[in-house]
Amino acid sequence: MRTEEVLQRLPHKLKQMIGSAGLLQNTAGCSKALVFHLPELKAYLKTAPFRDVEPLAYEAEVLHWLQGKLPVPAVLYFEHHGDYEYLLMSEVEGEDCSRELYRQDPEGMVRKLAEGLKLIHSVGIVDCTLDQGVEVKLKKARSNLERGLIRVADREPRYQGTPLPELYAQLLAKKPTEHDLVFTHGDYCLPNIILTDGQLSGFIDLGRAGVCDRYVDLALAIRSLEHNGYASPELVHLFFEVYGLSDIDQAKMEFYTLLDEFL
């Protein structure tokens, strides 16, 4: 959808809030929503057709719950209007970890990545109703498979050539029987962690955040390091060392990496 079409569909109140501020489409990352930067308002706008799987309303709920707990965007406006949802959020200023400038100090970036994940996993979950456990994720995966919503072009090279139904059967066979539940980001990859002058500034794209096994974040963090050219054994070891984990459950790492193929 073009920017002009988005502007035509905006709810009246949101139009008033945006005013004459320019919308610059942000194509970085893998969000299924359209994302626009509003530099004059220091804000971001997400808009997407309403979905019963991963609606923007859920991300708005996550952001509200995390206020005062983690450095995340504030919800400035949310509405389900017609067939679309609109989420306006404050900007987390800084540069995401995938930027070229962090290649000058890969060890420093990996340390901040691990420290950020420790911070997220330290959030108390006693009163958290944001369930992103394995059964919730498998339900989403099955729905995406049945609806034909999984793009073959986005699949990991290691899974190319294997039919999706067969991959899904492998996924079910690998399902863990024990779960180490913490608050998780759900999509912990380099573009979603923001640094300012090398220090943690905040986290973005929290549409899959909630209570789940910590390995959902660990698996995707390592995969993201691999995708961005930080896959050396030394950097992977440094990540786990700073995070504070020495006995790595490789079966869970493999399960959550495969699970993400369907999400």
The general outline is globular
Distance between the termini: 22 Å
Uncertain residue ranges: none
What letter string, H or E per element, gives the SSE order? HHEEEHEEEHHHEEEEHHH
User: Which class do the helix and strand fractions yield?
Assistant: alpha+beta
Mean pLDDT rating: 93
Beta-strand share of residues: 15-25%
Largest sheet: 5 strands, antiparallel
Number of E-type strands: 10
Rg, Å, rounded = 18 Å
Order of adjacent strands in the largest pleated sheet: 1-2-3-5-4
Number of helices: 9
Helix % is 25-40%
List the helices and strands and how they pair.
Elements: H1 3-9, H2 12-18, E1 24-25, E2 34-38, E3 43-49, H3 56-66, E4 75-81, E5 84-90, E6 95-96, H4 106-121, H5 134-146, H6 164-173, E7 181-184, E8 193-196, E9 199-203, E10 210-213, H7 215-227, H8 233-243, H9 250-259
Antiparallel strand pairs: 1-2, 2-3, 3-5, 4-5, 6-8, 7-10, 8-9
Helix pairs in contact: 4-8, 5-6, 7-9
Structure report:
The chain is an alpha+beta fold and 263 residues long. The protein is built from 9 helices and 10 strands. It has helices at 3-9, 12-18, 56-66, 106-121, 134-146, 164-173, 215-227, 233-243, 250-259; strands spanning 24-25, 34-38, 43-49, 75-81, 84-90, 95-96, 181-184, 193-196, 199-203, 210-213. The chain has a 5-stranded antiparallel beta sheet, covered by helices on one side. A hairpin with a 2-residue loop joins β8 (193-196) and β9. α5 packs antiparallel against α6 and α7 packs across α9 (250-259).
